[in-house]
């Protein structure tokens, strides 16, 4: 209920979410679905679930994050299944650990559908307004700072019990190409210029990062005959575990591949001084793993070409996204370099490429729950935390929203560790390791990636979503039933013996497999690289009717059993130190045997466990041994 106090609107909610990008949408939906009154603020209704850069969801490692968000009860997978225009499973030629789904989105429809979902969700209010201040108060009982609410630029106040900051790239944003500087957010939308000062006044450390985007080209001006066609997969594999696979089988649009060449690179080298990146105008640090074309040409001078992926922005416009060629070069140079590419000789630019600078934080200021260490009830997620990518943002938004809601409800927060999900790896890296550039998720960052596959995300994480209240009992029971079917079928296949009959020998020969000298189990045949579980149906008449998802899990678990067992042992060792908690009140200056650097880093980052402490740069194994001895003597460790 709203009313006026001294001429200003004043309202009260359980949770306030600042920003309605991919992080903000997931955070707000999580809080509302967990039964809390929630309001989400956006500087523009046009920025709800906006895709200001690439027009796709998923990709290598990012597809894992989307599947995990879905398994926890998030919305991104459901939304892209409604709005995709092409879908491909990447890395099919490699093992299942690195298979990653990627779907091209209709950008406008993706944003519209997510906005509809927010507006139709009970307990959730969507509001266009710019937040200028966070409001805190000191608790007299413990002397700590607590969140009390937020204030808009109009002076309206919104009291709450928790705030989730999901400001994306909008804080004091400015867009640059050549000598043109526009003080706007992405896509020319309004920047948020006031909140940074309030955060700094509350002791939050802020820094500048930058990212960029390529030009959008008019489809009619592209010669696709000079490019390599990239069709979608048939059949389509949905992102969400709740999506009926039959519902996503549809006609798909085409994407295309082309390449830069030496002429392109010569143009770029000749005009490097005009780039704000190399001219010293840009202050922020850009992403290492998504560099501008200028960076590629300079840093990979030995490469005679770079791959460009030409992607449609949607079904109802003619804009094509030139993936791999983001830039902040002057407008006239952009025309020159795009025109040097095969198929783009007559390209007409609809939107210039540009770099964007924005304020964000060093996520070392956060607990693994994504709550600020200095302010109780204040959480943050997404690019504001120094990450890059829609998927990384959505994953953080869901966890931050879930934990904000659990905090308000007086329940224990959720921490997904590195052995449980890519989300755990992402958040642990952000809050523990020093990062001087926008963080991007990669499969190589996940040390337990054989177990953290996209295909089993529901089996790994649905329990957490269910216990938090984000997944229905019916859905959770279906996951448990799937798990039971997998276990029973694996046991059957291991026990089912196959004799060296003429029928079996002929079958193996037809499939290019070595005939048997004696009887073996069906599992032994599944382990052969040239055979799969589904291949064995003709010689397995007792096989029960099972879904494709169950059959996939049976094959992977049997075929990679030895590797899986080895990784489970590694996880068991990891858990032993991860579960050794460090008390909040510890003063590392009292641990005299610690090296000075380790003492400084530990005091600064305040790790919650021995495991987290061991991953801090500058803390050696010897320091961890000293810390363990100290804690054991003080009887501090809580297993």
Please describe what this structure looks like.
The protein is of the alpha+beta class. The protein is built from 19 helices and 26 strands. Strands 1, 2, 9, 10, 11 and 23 form a 6-stranded mixed β-sheet that branches. Strands 17-18-19-20-16-21 form a 6-stranded antiparallel β-sheet, with no helix packed on it. It has a 5-stranded parallel β-sheet with strand order 8-4-3-12-24, with helices on one face. Helix 1 runs parallel beside helix 9, helix 2 packs parallel to helix 11 and helix 12 crosses helix 15. It is globular, with a radius of gyration of 26 Å.
Largest sheet: 6 strands, mixed
Structural class: alpha+beta
Instruction: Give the overall form.
Output: globular
Rounded to the nearest angstrom, the radius of gyration is 26 Å
β-strand amount: 15-25%
User: Quick one: CATH superfamily of the largest domain?
Assistant: FAD/NAD(P)-binding domain
Q: How many E-type strands?
A: 26
Rounded to the nearest angstrom, the distance between the terminal CA atoms is 45 Å
- Could you say what the CATH architecture of the largest domain is? 3-Layer(bba) Sandwich
